[in-house]
Specification:
heterodimer, A: alpha/beta, B: alpha/beta, 5-stranded mixed sheet, two-stranded parallel sheet, 3 helices, 9 strands, 21% helix
């Protein structure tokens, strides 16, 4: 990366910054993720603390959206019941590409305390939608949310944008 | 009014429909009544001036292996007395008259008891599931319930 390092001393190279457009786009993309918050249980309560002024989630460039059409990632916070699983799938399908998923808490990671006798709980939201970042905890502390968000930003900033299809074809 | 006084008054009015009174359990004393006269007994308990049970605290469905039961916790805001009613019906034909017309609280409680235990409430205006999805099969809080393997293509077990 090092784009920011170069900004610190722009005149060393005569005022020119060399970099890939992909890096710059990814830099912008990773620093302004709008999210669809899917609060389902007590993790969503912890997420309120994350959003409040002590931890200030919006300093990561995130803005809560109420519509999946405007969201970059969906934050599944809580127990995913089968009744809700259908709805999550629909909302995920409504999001525009590129889209990401953060799964928060034991329940949506693997079923949590309902793993054995929870006839009504989906044992992990990754059974219906692809998850990018898992945040462990029951519920996770706001610091864990922060780390999850940083991990997602890292993932986004290293992604390919151009010739994606061509690259993927060559991999297959 | 004490529970045994309520029982005596109901017994003289309804006779065999009031089956027994039990105050030896560690729980609240309860009156076992037959399902056929449930609606009339509840109506009397609410509207008669000496009872005035104007508040249904809770309606619970229960599974007693070969029978299912419904438990009504009643309270009087006027006289500050309370009583517990129990109805037991066979699992093969779990029909209990609805008391939703008497206490509006019973509306959702009866839907819950139907959803999880499978008690059929006759006379309920909207007897559909309340917690599980509408197309769910079976009644999950029954002792002999076994969860399905798949629901809408999603695996249920871990």
């Amino acid at each position: 990366m090092g784009l920011l390092d170069r900004l610190d001393d722009p005149y060393e190279g005569g005022g020119i910054i060399l970099g890939k457009i992909e890096d710059i786009l990814n830099w912008g993309r990773s620093k302004s993720d709008w999210y669809l918050h899917f609060g389902l249980a007590c993790c969503a309560i912890e997420f309120m603390a994350m959003n409040a002024s002590h931890f200030d989630f919006m300093r990561f460039g995130t803005i809560p959206r109420t519509s999946p059409r405007q969201a970059d990632f969906i934050m599944v916070t809580g127990t995913v019941t089968f009744k809700m699983a259908d709805r999550i799938k629909i909302l995920y399908e409504q999001m525009a590409e590129p889209k990401y998923v953060i799964s928060v808490g034991s329940c949506s990671n693997c079923g949590g305390p309902y793993w054995e006798h929870g006839y009504h709980v989906l044992k992990g939201v990754d059974r219906i939608i692809p998850v990018d970042v898992y945040i462990p905890g029951c519920p996770p502390r706001p610091e864990a949310f922060e780390e999850g968000m940083i991990l997602l930003q890292k993932k986004i900033s290293h992604q390919a944008i151009f010739n994606k299809r061509k690259r993927l074809e060559s991999e297959v | 009014m004490l529970p045994n006084e309520i029982y005596d008054k109901l017994k003289t009015e309804f006779g065999d429909a009031v089956i027994e009174f039990d105050n030896k359990q560690p729980t609240d004393p309860f009156i076992l009544i037959s399902a056929d006269n449930l609606f009339d007994i509840c109506h009397t308990l609410r509207d008669k001036d000496e009872f005035v049970f104007d508040y249904l605290m809770c309606l619970t469905g229960m599974d007693f292996a070969e029978n299912v039961g419904v438990v009504y916790h009643l309270y009087s805001m006027v006289f500050k007395h309370k009583i517990v009613l129990k109805v037991i019906v066979p699992k093969s034909d779990p029909k209990v008259p609805s008391v939703e017309m008497i206490w509006r609280t019973a509306d959702w409680h009866e839907r819950e008891a139907y959803d999880l235990i499978g008690v059929q409430f006759e006379g309920h205006h909207n007897p559909i599931r309340i917690l599980c999805p509408y197309d769910w099969e079976g009644h999950p809080l029954r002792k002999d319930y076994e969860a399905p393997e798949y629901y809408h293509g999603m695996k249920v077990s871990y």
